[in-house]
Amino acid sequence: MAKAPRFDAAWNRKRRWKAAWRRWRWVPGLAILAGLAVWARQAGWGDGEWQEMAQQFPVCGTATRGAGCVIDGDTLAIGERRIRLSGYDAPELDGECENERLKAVEAQFALSRWLSAGPFELEGGADRPRDKYGRELAEARRGNVRLSDHMIGLGLATENGWMLADDWASVEWCA
Asked: Do residues 171 and 88 lie in contact, with contact meaning Cβ atoms separated by under 8 Å?
């Protein structure tokens, strides 16, 4: 014999809540995991491999070149390696207008001063990603201060992440 249907409102309400909980019970767990991931990233965990550098980086061609030098406002050379510093885009030395070229020289010397001011770290380890020109991509920081924030704060760069070089052309330095 089949059971008679229940028309008890409290029982039906409880049944609906249990069904909703079974359907959505993964959401609080996911929210906790996302919160932990954000907290760990802010605490510096999962940052990848950082290599400490402590040497002088003069502008290439202005002094006797040691182990490294600054090519432009966002690229440096260490021996035969060319490293594109990520997180920002500096104006180009062979820019479209005089204003861009002047800003590029200013950014080049600002980068040289920042790199030569004391020990800093480069992210990426031995197997760094590369851009379409074959340059290694790396991010630089000194303590908790990222180089990209410093250069953008000086007004000598615009923000970008790991964008492709084709997207960098949209910056207007000549306006």
From this structure: no
